[in-house]
Amino acid sequence: MNVVFTVLIILIIICLILIWYVNTYNKYQSLIIKINEAEANIDTTLRKRFDLLNKSINIIKGNTKIEGEVLELIVKLRSRKLSNFDLDRQLYEAINEFNYYKENYPELEKVDSLVKIESALDDSEHEINALRKYYNDTITEYNKLTKKFPSNIVAIMLKYKEKTYFDGKNMNDDIINDFKL
């Protein structure tokens, strides 16, 4: 009777551990799906921004007397394969250059297609900010799971590593910066 009771207790403990493992594994899988979804949406939005800036090159050239290349950064980006982090930074610089042309060439203010591109770029800025926040919030949840006990046991078993935020920082950067304040 005592042996049966001991075996039953061991089976219950094994079942509880198995249930915990499956639950934690599913949390990781859910977060990985959210991260992949966010990355895909960010990629789509960044490609849309790139296309808008690319279209603006001919419009700017056709409506001004600029010698040389316009939005050289966009021309250089056409053949490069970049991560979303790097592409976002490069597009931000290209948007600054786009704004420079808009400010310094008043005749561009009257070009309808360029005004539409500017409006679409503004819309995409709001969209990318929302996507960044969603991505970073999801990364925070994921990174907390990889750091906290006992869920970090599953992370170690499955070789899940901490992921960086969209701005390229990791959780330790934020902790260090908080202590410097």
Keywords summarizing the entry:
181 residues; mainly alpha; de novo design (two linked rop proteins); 6 helices; rod-shaped; disordered C terminus
Describe this structure in words.
Helix 1 packs parallel to helix 3 (84-104). The chain has helices at residues 2-63, 72-77, 84-104, 112-147, 151-158, 171-180. The radius of gyration is 25 Å and the shape is rod-shaped. The N and C termini lie far apart (63 Å). It has one domain: de novo design (two linked rop proteins). Residues 173-181 have low confidence and may be disordered. It is built from 6 helices and no strands. The protein is an all-alpha fold and 181 residues long. The longest helix has 62 residues, at 2-63.
Integer-rounded radius of gyration: 25 Å
Low-confidence region ranges: 173-181
Number of domains: 1
> What class, by secondary structure content?
mainly alpha
What is the straight-line distance between the termini? 63 Å
Report on the biggest sheet.
Answer: none
Overall helicity: over 70%
Order of helices and strands: HHHHHH
**CATH-level-2 architecture:** Up-down Bundle
Strand content: under 5%
How many individual β-strands?
0
- Count of DSSP-assigned helices: 6
Shape: rod-shaped
CATH class: Mainly Alpha
Mean pLDDT figure: 85
Which fold name corresponds to the CATH topology? Answer: de novo design (two linked rop proteins)
